[in-house]
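Why should sequence recovery work at all? Because a backbone constrains its sequence more than one might expect. Tight turns favour small or flexible residues, buried strands favour hydrophobic ones, and helices have their own preferences. The token representation captures these environments compactly. In the example below, the structure is given first.
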């Protein structure tokens, strides 16, 4: 799974369950736009400024003179949690503008960025693995961050700034078959 949100971890505690979150596979959290958008790279600070509402026009980041349409996911989705914890950190996300709905699923987010009528204005986020292996779209361009692309080499050496993982989320202290599977996955053989 993607990393649980603070709210999800708190809800588990309310039920007397402590979750153990173990990284098992490397991934990158990526930002996407339409392939026709001339912008190829954004900085970490530009991303924060866009999603906090300080930057609102692509011309402010080297693009055309048009409004940026920054799509978001619903609360507690894996990508929304990553956006809040990995990217924005202590910078509050702006509320989505009227008419730019929160998308309900990564596939929908990829579709609205690729096909929206003002598609070159769109900006969204997803996971590198998802975009490249589960939901390819020829109209999407993955943006570099600080000039670094989220390819496998840059994810492995951690030069890409939004490195993340997929996790085995288990009940702490559990010794069931699930725990044994998690232990195998993180072993040398399991990682191969």
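From this structural description, the recovered sequence reads:
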């Amino acid at each position: 799974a993607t990393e649980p949100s603070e709210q999800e971890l708190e809800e588990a505690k309310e039920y007397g369950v402590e979750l153990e979150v173990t990284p098992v596979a490397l991934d990158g959290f990526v930002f996407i736009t339409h392939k026709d958008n001339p912008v190829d790279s954004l900085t970490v600070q530009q991303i924060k400024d866009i999603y906090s509402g300080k930057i609102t026009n692509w011309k402010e980041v080297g693009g055309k003179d048009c409004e940026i349409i920054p799509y978001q996911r619903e609360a507690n989705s894996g990508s929304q949690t990553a956006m809040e914890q990995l990217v924005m950190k202590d910078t509050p996300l702006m509320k989505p503008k009227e008419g730019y709905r929160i998308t309900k699923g990564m596939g929908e987010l990829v579709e609205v960025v690729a096909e929206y009528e003002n598609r070159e204005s769109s900006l969204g986020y997803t996971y590198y693995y998802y975009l490249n292996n589960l939901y390819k779209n020829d109209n999407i361009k993955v943006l570099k961050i600080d000039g670094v692309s989220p390819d496998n080499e840059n994810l492995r050496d951690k030069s890409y700034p939004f490195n993340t993982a997929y996790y085995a989320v288990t009940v702490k202290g559990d010794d069931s078959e699930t725990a044994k599977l998690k232990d195998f996955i993180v072993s040398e053989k399991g990682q191969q």
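A few observations help interpret the result. The CA atoms of residues 84 and 93 lie 7 Å apart.
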